[in-house]
């Protein structure tokens, strides 16, 4: 358990930050006048200070912060008027808070008493009573304690990071140029070796030829010398000798170039190390110990537990590990949600724990570890655990999986369904714990941090949530791959491993692989982005992703390596490109697009809480499988049906449709007729021959409007026939109305 002195240390770190915001903000109001955003900033800082002070039981700071918060809220709501007199009184209150915080710095406690008149003054302002005239005397702000820290404006740091982004681009450029240089030197070297060999071979042949033919070089100078006494050279020999000498010179030049390249490469590597050091140092500036957040939350959670008649001890390890401020700020919501769920639904009552042979006091362990550039947070409670059979039952009831499929998936995958919007194994809905909203908000928050979350549980013993997030969001670690001669990137943090396609030849045909006793569905990147037939791939790689216990595979043409880069947003003009996280500039100066793997597999994840498109209250009224080789038709129909609260699966041909139906339960199939691989007629025929789909409604959606085509469809078992182009009214009549009758 954290001691009081350590808790005070974390409070003071946060209090100093808040007071600096308050001092600078009020000074800005005095010089520039009323500004809503400044007052909002002051309100947030006061609110944070109030909460921090209340946790460590500094009641005087809590009271003054609360009153100050009320003043700022009234200002924002227009309930009181803004004037210089008001700002004067606000500065006086801040001055009192600064004095109290200074006392805590020096003695570890509040010593001064709050004058009754101060509270009455604030109450009078809020109640719009007469405010005493401002006395013309100076207001002395006690300085915050001098520390070894130097405060730097966040804007300055952000500007440095922007420059760092450009430096990283230059670093990548140098790396690419280095590779090009080595390639050029290697090419020149190979060419030089070939030239030297050709000249040497030709020279040997010439000497042999002239000797065999008995040719003699006629020169009056040689009359008195035998062949052994004087070497004979004609113009060919002289030419060959010159060429050999030139070639030797070229070889020496190439060797010198090699040495130069190696030295240059050494300098590049040294520069790269310095840039990495600079990058790490700059990121360190924004780093905050995660314990500052966890200890604050632990005290709040203990109080919450007392409110519902429970006691818990929270053990925190790894509190000294630091994370980037944007990550720190975004972790509050998911962690508090997990902890509240633990005390509300995990930790049992005293009586229940005693019956189970447990201690009366519940235990929650938070273990933080650093793994490379990632932070792993394990939150474990020794409570009831999660009933996996109940999770299965609810998943089947909600139509998330078929009852037959539950016997094929692992416990890890079954537990992943607790992150589905609205999914809960509890019959109670508690406002404070947020159980009614489900853990999908935790999943969403972690996904926004480019992280993952997994859950493991043993009934009546324990539940563990494992969160893995990047230590910093400033620089992204990216895997670079190519498809159809274009380069793309994807975040490394979701990648579990990379396999070669040669080891899984059935993957292209079956769209799945059996790896480590798991069936992993796979997609082919070139089919998704270029509408090409992926079966033509001869070689390639399978990138295996782990999405909170659910594995998916992506087949790509080639793996090119990895890079560190700053990923930029597209901006509002391209914000519709949801399959991308953004872009970065490669070393060659061209943009590389960063794929969002969650969106890539969105079709299969809509029920696992990974899609941002699904709101917490969204409940599907039915499910439809749309089969069409035209992506525009699929997307248009998907948009129309989803707007009607229908769950939509899509497939581009009959084979893909059959595979989807093996894994998912649907209420209707809407299919085109003319498609590659397997056309619509064959799909209808196969479905009607399968007892499971004998009564499944099938609507044909085609550009063929002849009676012949229509009769054939009905003959095979179609229930409806729509001719393209279609409108929403037709869709409502043929699809929505029919679904209501099911």
From TrEMBL:
GO terms for biological process: chemotaxis. GO terms for molecular function: phosphorelay sensor kinase activity. InterPro entries: Bact_Chemotaxis_CheA, CheW-like_dom_sf, CheW-lke_dom, CheY-like_superfamily, HATPase_C_sf, HATPase_dom, His_kinase_dom, HPT_dom_sf. Residues 623-739 form the Response regulatory domain. Keywords: Coiled coil, Kinase, Phosphoprotein, Transferase. It is an enzyme of class 2 (transferase). The modification 4-aspartylphosphate is found at residue 672. Residues 273-473 form the Histidine kinase domain. It comes from the Bacteria. Signal peptide: none annotated. Residues 1-111 form the HPt domain. Residues 475-606 form the CheW-like domain. Residues 97-124 form a coiled coil. This is histidine kinase.
């Amino acid at each position: 358990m954290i001691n009081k002195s350590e808790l005070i240390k974390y409070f003071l770190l946060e209090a100093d930050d808040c007071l600096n915001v308050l001092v600078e903000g009020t000074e800005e109001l005095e010089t520039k006048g009323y500004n809503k955003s400044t007052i909002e900033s002051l309100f947030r800082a006061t609110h944070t200070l109030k909460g921090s002070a209340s946790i460590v039981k500094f009641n005087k700071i809590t009271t003054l912060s609360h009153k100050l918060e009320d003043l700022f809220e009234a200002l924002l709501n227009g309930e009181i008027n803004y004037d210089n007199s008001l700002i004067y009184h606000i500065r006086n209150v801040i001055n009192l808070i600064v004095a109290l915080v200074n006392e805590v710095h020096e003695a570890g406690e509040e010593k001064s008493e709050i004058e009754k008149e101060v509270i009455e003054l604030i109450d009078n302002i809020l109640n719009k009573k007469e405010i005493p005239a401002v006395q013309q005397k100076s207001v002395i702000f006690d300085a915050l304690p001098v520390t070894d820290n130097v405060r730097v404006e966040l804007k300055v740091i952000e500007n440095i990071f922007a420059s760092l982004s450009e430096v990283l681009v230059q670093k990548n450029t140098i790396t690419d140029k280095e590779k090009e240089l080595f390639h050029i030197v290697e090419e020149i070297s190979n060419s030089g070796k070939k030239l030297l060999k050709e000249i040497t071979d030709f020279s040997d042949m010439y000497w042999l030829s002239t000797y065999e033919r008995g040719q003699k070089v006629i020169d009056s100078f040689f009359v008195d010398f035998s062949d052994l006494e004087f070497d004979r050279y004609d113009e060919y020999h002289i030419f060959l000798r010159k060429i050999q000498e030139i070639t030797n010179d070229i070889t020496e030049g190439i060797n010198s170039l090699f040495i130069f390249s190696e030295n240059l490469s050494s300098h590049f590597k040294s520069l790269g190390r310095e840039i990495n050091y600079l990058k790490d140092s700059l990121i360190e500036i924004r780093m905050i110990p995660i314990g500052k957040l966890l200890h604050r939350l632990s005290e709040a959670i203990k109080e919450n537990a007392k409110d519902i008649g429970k006691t818990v001890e929270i053990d925190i390890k790894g509190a000294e590990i630091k994370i980037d401020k944007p990550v720190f700020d975004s972790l509050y919501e998911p962690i508090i949600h997990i902890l509240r769920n633990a005390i509300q639904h995990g930790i049992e009552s005293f009586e229940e724990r005693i019956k189970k042979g447990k201690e009366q006091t519940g235990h929650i362990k938070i273990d933080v570890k650093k793994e490379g550039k990632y932070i792993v947070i394990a939150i474990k409670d020794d409570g009831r655990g999660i009933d996996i059979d109940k999770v299965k039952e609810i998943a089947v009831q909600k139509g998330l999986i078929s009852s037959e499929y539950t016997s094929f998936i692992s416990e890890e995958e079954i537990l992943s369904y607790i992150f589905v919007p609205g999914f809960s194994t509890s019959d109670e809905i508690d406002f404070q714990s947020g159980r009614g909203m489900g853990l999908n908000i935790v999943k969403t928050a972690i996904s926004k941090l480019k992280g993952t979350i997994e859950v493991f549980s043993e009934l009546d013993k324990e539940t563990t949530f494992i969160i893995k997030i990047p230590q910093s969001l400033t620089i992204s670690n990216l895997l670079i791959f190519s498809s159809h001669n274009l380069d793309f990137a994807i975040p490394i943090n979701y990648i579990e491993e990379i396999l070669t396609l040669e080891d899984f030849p059935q993957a292209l045909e079956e769209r799945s692989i059996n790896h480590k006793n798991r069936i992993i569905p796979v997609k082919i990147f070139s089919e998704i982005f270029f509408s090409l037939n992926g079966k033509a791939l001869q070689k390639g790689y399978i990138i295996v992703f782990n999405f909170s216990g659910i594995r998916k595979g992506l087949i790509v043409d080639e793996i090119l390596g990895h890079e560190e880069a700053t990923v930029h947003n597209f901006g509002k003009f391209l914000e519709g490109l949801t399959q991308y996280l953004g872009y970065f500039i490669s070393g060659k100066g061209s943009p590389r697009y960063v794929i969002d793997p969650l969106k890539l597999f969105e079709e299969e994840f809509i029920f696992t809480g990974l899609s941002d498109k699904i709101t917490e209250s969204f409940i599907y009224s039915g499910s439809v499988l749309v089969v069409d080789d035209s992506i525009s038709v699929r997307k248009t129909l998907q948009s129309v049906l989803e707007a009607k609260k229908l769950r939509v699966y899509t497939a581009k041909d009959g084979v893909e449709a059959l595979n989807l139906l093996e894994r998912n339960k649907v209420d209707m199939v809407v299919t085109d007729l003319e498609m590659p691989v397997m056309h619509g007629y064959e799909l209808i025929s196969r479905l009607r021959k399968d007892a499971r789909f004998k009564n499944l409604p099938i609507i044909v959606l085609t550009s063929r409007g002849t009676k012949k085509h229509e009769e054939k469809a009905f003959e095979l078992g179609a229930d409806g026939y729509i001719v393209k182009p279609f409108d929403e009214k037709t869709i409502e009549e043929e699809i929505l109305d029919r679904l209501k009758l099911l």
